Amino acid sequence: MSAHPENRAGLWVALASFVLWGLMPLYWHLLKVVPSLQIVAHRVIWSTLLVVAWLLWKQGRGWLRAALAQPRAAWMLALSGALIGFNWSLYIWAVNAGHVVESSLGYFINPLLNVVLGVAFLHERLRRAQWIAVALATAGVIWLTVQFGQPPWIAICLALSFALYGLLRKLVAIDAVGGLGVESVYLFLPALAVMVWGEAQGAGGFLPLGGAPGWGLGVDLLLVFGGALTALPLIGFAFAVRRVPLSVVGLLQYIAPTLQFLTGVFVFHEAFDRDRLIGFVFIWIGLAIFAIDGALRARRTGVTPVAAASEA
């Protein structure tokens, strides 16, 4: 697969995208001085400008009209935009509130929750190995709930919002970057209103626009560049998924939550005792079964890059 130059480029771009996603907690932690809602507002504003500029360059001024001409695209992308906005907000708050490990759990659970939603909404059928994987992950979540007296709400909400986002995007026939562009346009004005409101109330400090002392030029630049870090991995993923088999992408996706988990434990020194380890081990075993089953099935059926792109 990787012998072909285009496939090799796709593999490296996919790897870079997942590594960037995995190291995001380190970046958002640099912005800890900024309120989480303001970080999200800036993330939306600057990523919107970048993504829309990209689409104008690649597709011309008619890209938005063409995207919204798809059946059901207008309201479904508005809903998926709301879900991804909620996901970003919860994730950034969790990272800066010391919940990186639990956040990583959400993205470990996410692939298995995607399977469950496929059964519930798309009438897909699970193979025996997939049922076992889902059962093990469920056992892990139940264990964590019993041990700590409440469900891991951050992980569950992150996994559920992202899985529902993926379901909606699967039902809309639009490419990843074009869909993100429409979602960004929907979110832009609310994000701009949040930023302006924050500046007016003294909760902001960008440049500073509202007369507050400001966060400093370094933080301002990090906020702006955060938009690029939002858009670039997704653009890279869209590039890579058309060139790399789905079985490979499926295995690479675990790089991001693994790096998030390692960051939480070894960089931010978050608590990870034996009880948490037991719950995670159930989920990791389930993921291993899920990934191995997917790789074996892809090998038997001979998934091509084109099929990978359409399924992803």
TrEMBL record:
Query: What is the superkingdom listed in this entry's lineage?
Result: Bacteria
Q: Where is the signal peptide?
A: none
Q: Which SUPFAM superfamilies match?
A: Multidrug resistance efflux transporter EmrE (SSF103481)
Listed GO cellular component terms? plasma membrane
Q: Which residues form the EamA domain?
A: 10-145
**Where this protein primarily resides, as one coarse class?**
membrane
What keywords would UniProt list here? Answer: Cell membrane, Membrane, Transmembrane, Transmembrane helix, Transport
Q: Does the keyword S-adenosyl-L-methionine apply?
A: no
For the keyword Transmembrane, the answer is: yes
Transmembrane stretches, start-end: 9-28, 40-57, 73-93, 105-122, 129-146, 152-168, 180-197, 217-239, 251-271, 277-296
- What is the protein's membrane topology class? Multi-pass membrane protein
User: Where does it localize?
Assistant: Cell membrane
Q: Which InterPro entries match?
A: EamA_dom, EmrE-like, RarD
User: What is stated as this protein's family in its record?
Assistant: Belongs to the EamA transporter family.
This one is known as EamA family transporter RarD
Organism listed in the record: Agrilutibacter terrestris
